[in-house]
Specification:
16 strands, alpha/beta, 9-stranded mixed β-sheet, globular, binds 2-acetamido-2-deoxy-beta-D-glucopyranose, 3-stranded mixed β-sheet, 2 domains, Spore Coat Polysaccharide Biosynthesis Protein SpsA, Chain A, disordered N terminus
Length: 396
C-alpha cells in the first residue's frame, strides 16, 4: 500500500534527523579518570511517533504546527506525506471543505452550527461591506472595539452617548469602532443593510464584513479585526475589545493605562481570566464541544465580554493567529493565540464579565472603581454614565 510506505518513509526520515540531533546534543563524550572515553547512553526513549489526534481540531493544529515549522518543513518537502498530513482540502480555503464529512466520525449527527463551522473553518477572509479607513487617523491612545450585531442600533447608540464617546477624553485620544458581519438570505432576517449604511455614514464607526454573523463565527470576527487593525490602525497604543452589552468605565481605564510603565504596557493583556477550563460535553449547553472536534484543556483565557491589551500585542496576535486553527469559541481562540506567543492573560479585579452582586448594582461608587460590568441595557448605561463623570460625587 502506498499509504503504508509513505508513512514508513516519513518515519525513517524523521527518525534519522532526530537521531543525529540527539547524538550531537546528548551523547557526551566524557573522559573518566583513566583518560578513556566513555559514552553516556540516554536511558529514556528520545523520540515519539507523531500520532494523528482523534479530534479534528487537534489534528488540523498538529498539521499546521508541523507544516509551519521551518526546521521540519525543509525535510518534509522532500518526502511524501501520509494522507492525514497532506490532505489539505480544496485549494481555495473559502470553498466548503467537504473532507470534514468523512474525517469526523459523528459529523452527520452534530448540531448544524458545528457542521457550518467545520465546513468553513479554513476561510479567514471575507469581503468588506463598510470600512472606516480614517478612524485611526489621529492615532488613538485607546481604541474601543465593540462586537455588535445588525439589529442592535440602540445598544450602539447608548455606547456612543456614554462610555464609547470618541474624541479626547481625560486628555487622551479615544476612537470607537463597531464590528459587524452580515446575514445569509437563508436565515430569514429582515433586511437592515440600508439602515446600517446610513448609520455608518452618520457616525463613521461601523466596520462590516460579508459573512454570517453567528456565535461560532465570532472567531472570524476576531481574525478579521486583527487583520484590519494591522493594516488600518497599527499605531493605536491600546485596544479594548468587548461586547455591546457591557458597561466600560473608560475614565478608569485611561487612568490605569496612564500609570503603566513602558515595559508593562508592551505585553499588557488584562481581563476576567478563566483558567483550567475545558470544553463542555453536555450537548444542551451553548458552549458544548464534541470530543470528535476538540480534546484537551483550554489555555487560560480572558472572558470575551471585554479585555484590554496593547496595540503591540494586537499586532503579535495577528501573526500568531495565522498559526492557530480557528476554534468556534472566540475568547478561547484568543487564549490559544496568546499561548502560541508564550504569553497569557492577566486577571484584573476591575473586569466583571460575570456581573456584579445585585445589591451593588445601584451603587454609583462601585462603577467608579470597576473597569467593566456585564451586562447592562442601553437605558442602564445612560443612567450610570453620569455617576462616573460627575466629579462632585464623593466616594471616599
Ligand atoms: C499531497 O497531495 C497532493 C494532491 O492532493 C499531491 O499533488 C502532492 O504531491 C502531495 N504532496 C506530498 C508532499 O505528498
Ligand atoms: C494634556 O496634554 C497636553 C499635551 O500632551 C499637556 O500639555 C497638558 O498638560 C495635559 N493636560 C492635562 C490636564 O493633563
Ligand atoms: C460563518 O460564515 C460563513 C460565511 O457567511 C458561513 O458560510 C458559515 O456557515 C458561518 N458559520 C457559522 C457557524 O455560522
Ligand atoms: C495614576 O493613578 C492615580 C490613582 O491611583 C490617579 O489619581 C492618577 O490620575 C493616575 N495618573 C495618571 C497619569 O493617570
Ligand atoms: C477592513 C480593512 O481591512 N480595511 C482596509 C484597511 O486598509 C487597507 C489598505 O491599507 C485596505 O486595503 C483595507 O480594505
Amino acid at each position: 500500500m502506498p499509504v503504508g510506505r509513505r508513512r514508513v518513509s516519513l518515519l525513517c526520515l524523521l527518525l534519522n534527523v532526530l537521531f543525529c540531533l540527539l547524538v550531537a546534543v546528548t551523547w557526551n563524550l566524557r573522559s573518566d579518570k583513566s583518560g578513556r572515553q566513555k559514552i553516556l547512553i540516554p536511558s529514556q526513549r528520545f523520540w515519539r511517533q507523531l500520532v494523528p489526534s482523534k479530534s479534528f481540531w487537534n489534528r488540523e493544529q498538529q498539521r499546521l504546527d508541523l507544516l509551519s515549522n521551518p526546521n521540519v518543513n525543509s525535510v518534509l518537502s522532500a518526502i511524501e506525506l501520509p494522507d492525514w498530513l497532506n490532505d489539505t482540502g480544496p485549494t481555495d480555503p473559502c470553498e466548503p471543505d467537504y473532507r470534514v464529512r468523512r474525517q469526523i466520525l459523528d459529523y452527520n449527527v452534530l448540531p448544524g452550527r458545528f457542521q457550518d463551522f467545520l465546513l468553513h473553518m479554513r476561510c479567514r477572509t471575507y469581503p468588506v461591506l463598510i470600512d472606516q479607513p480614517r478612524v485611526c487617523e489621529d492615532t488613538p491612545f485607546l481604541l474601543l472595539v465593540i462586537k455588535s450585531l445588525m439589529p442592535h442600533f440602540d445598544r450602539r447608540q447608548a455606547i456612543r452617548e456614554t462610555w464609547g464617546r470618541a474624541g479626547v477624553f481625560a486628555n487622551q485620544t479615544v476612537a470607537t469602532v463597531f464590528l459587524l458581519g452580515s446575514t445569509l438570505p437563508s436565515d430569514h432576517h429582515p433586511d437592515l443593510q440600508g439602515m446600517l449604511h446610513h448609520e455608518g455614514a452618520l457616525h463613521k464607526d461601523i466596520i462590516q464584513w460579508d459573512y454570517r454573523d453567528s456565535f461560532f463565527n465570532l472567531t472570524v470576527k476576531e481574525v478579521l479585526f486583527l487583520e484590519w487593525f494591522s493594516q488600518n490602525c497599527s499605531q493605536a497604543k491600546f485596544v479594548f475589545k468587548g461586547d455591546d452589552d457591557v458597561f466600560v468605565n473608560t475614565i478608569r481605564i485611561l487612568e490605569f493605562l496612564g500609570n503603566l510603565s513602558e515595559s508593562r504596557s508592551k505585553e499588557l493583556f488584562i481581563g476576567d481570566v478563566i483558567s483550567n477550563a475545558g470544553p463542555h460535553r453536555n450537548r444542551k449547553l451553548k458552549y458544548f464541544i464534541p470530543e470528535s472536534v476538540f480534546s484537551g484543556l483550554y489555555p487560560p483565557y480572558a472572558g470575551g465580554g471585554g479585555y484590554l491589551y496593547s496595540g503591540d500585542l494586537a499586532l503579535r496576535l495577528h501573526s500568531a493567529s495565522q498559526q492557530v486553527v480557528l476554534y468556534p469559541i472566540d475568547d478561547v481562540y484568543t487564549g490559544m493565540c496568546l499561548k502560541k506567543l508564550g504569553l497569557g492573560p492577566e486577571r484584573h479585579q476591575g473586569f466583571r464579565t460575570f456581573g456584579i452582586d445585585p445589591k451593588y448594582r445601584d451603587n454609583p461608587c462601585v462603577y467608579r472603581v470597576l473597569m467593566l460590568v456585564h451586562s447592562l441595557t442601553p437605558q442602564e448605561m445612560l443612567r450610570i454614565w453620569p455617576w462616573i463623570i460627575h466629579p462632585e460625587l464623593d466616594c471616599q
